[in-house]
Amino acid sequence: MAKNLTTRDEDYSKWYNELVIKADLAENSGVRGCMVIKPYGFAIWEMMQAELDRMFKETGHQNAYFPLFIPKSYFSKEASHVDGFAKECAVVTHYRLKTAEDGSIVVDQTAKLEEELIVRPTSETIIWDTYRKWIQSYRDLPLLINQWANVVRWEMRTRLFLRTTEFLWQEGHTAHATKDEAIAESEQMMNVYADFVENHMAVPVVKGLKTESERFAGALETYCIEALMQDGKALQAGTSHFLGQNFAKAFDVKFANKQGKQEYVWATSWGVSTRLMGALIMTHSDDNGLVLPPKLAPDQVVIVPIYRNDEQFDAVSEVANNLMKDLRAKGVRVKFDKRDTHKPGWKFNEYELKGVPLRIAIGPKDIEKGTVEMARRDTLTKEIVETTAVEARVEVLLEEIQDNLFTKAVNYRSAHTTQVSSYDEFKKILNEKGGFISAHWDGTSATEEQIKKETKATIRCIPLDTDNKAGRCIVTGNISARKVLFAKAY
RNA sequence: CGGGGUGUAGCGUAGCCCGGUUAUCGCGCCACGUUUGGGACGUGGAGGCCGCAGGUUCGAAUCCUGCCACCCCGACCA
């Protein structure tokens, strides 16, 4: 059993914070709102990056890198965009320090910048300023670029991975000749995200559209994927925006079409961030610690030796090393933990806390019988397996664990998605059960705002796979074209 | 930015109201020995600008003032 881990029932957010720290994923730094991502946490992020990067490239995108600093004036070019980010920007005003008379380090006031630089909260402006120079003809389109970067948003309140002042993400920025093509790109990337999150992270998502008030600053349409956490709160896991011609007009990005006529290009942007780590942790983990889906686990299998003396250790090691070699040849990520500084029991708990999907223990009894003990992290069950059968069994179990985690999460979500037909029922479900609430809404921002004020629930999305049955808004009783998905959100 | 709270060893803490020996305890750390199939035990040891600065006092972790940081609640969060 994990020592001192607060349970989810006791205090969910305390459980989350402790888990992040104890599983060695990240910790708070000396810098307000900024976290240190520790090696184990970063290894998981790298697994995510590698797969996403592969998917982006498979859909024709290329990576590039744009500056961290954006001149202030760039922001004023697209009005709604600056409105969305103005309140949370870090601003660079000086470029030099000096030693004061009392020996302290101070900002050199004579080194003031002509124009302040903004630490990017997102890169639309600098990228579109650059695209102007890259795009002249329809032959230059589509332009399909992604960048892996850090961004800064000066949030009032931060939480490890879920909302930090600085965070890591990827942002795709594409330019297209036609509106339809740009919309198709936004939809495609939403689907890529959904594919990744469901099939690699084993986290089920609802694909949908954001309402006008929840839309990205500067977008005409925001596609999103929404996931449900174990405490019944929703988490926006990724967004893909159709930007129309807003940025093309703001940054004067035109191309000559086949008829030689100048046209503004059509744009999209899309991103996912280290917040996905939060989604991964909160979806699968339990009171014993982290639970990782095999596809993203830095170590899929760990082998723990049990021995009393050198002779036994040598015998166990021989079996372990052979297993490791065979499993690695099959592409399984496996580690043999032969540290003599910790006891087996300590290691069992350690790997449980860190969410390693499969643990293999090999001791003197196993050597005698030609077996090993295998333990699953997701079900906490153990089985004895013939050494010769381990390789095949590992492959089966890794797949089973991946599927099981997804199925469990889907079941949880189904059990916590409620259809309601009145506002009273809505409030009751929200307070007593939480989760997604599917209800009719009259489509106005006023009603949406009223619900948010009165209940703290927001419209997570207008689901795309809904059956579009008309009805009456639960608040106003006005005509509603379809049900939308509400929840309290992170 | 408003309301509340907390800063004592790497971490978690006692002491603070009511000033007075060498600042308490647990975890962790180091050494040695016994241990090793679910977070071992014993013995010994190291580790402290008591958040920072000033003040009161013979004497301050303790009282006073200012500052800083963090946490919680609100506001904020495309």
In words, what does this structure look like?
With 490 residues, the protein is α+β, with helices and mostly antiparallel strands. The chain has three domains: 12-284, BirA Bifunctional Protein, domain 2 (2-Layer Sandwich); 299-399, Anticodon-binding domain (Rossmann fold), CATH 3.40.50; 417-487, Translation Initiation Factor IF3 (2-Layer Sandwich), CATH 3.30.110.30. The chain has 14 helices and 27 strands. The strands form seven sheets. Strands 3-9-10-16-13-12-11-24-27-23-22 form an eleven-stranded mixed beta sheet, with helices on both faces. Strands 18-17-19-20-21 form a five-stranded mixed beta sheet, sandwiched between helices. The chain has a three-stranded antiparallel beta sheet with strand order 4-8-5. Strand 1 (26-28) and strand 2 form a beta hairpin. The structure holds one RNA strand of 78 nucleotides.
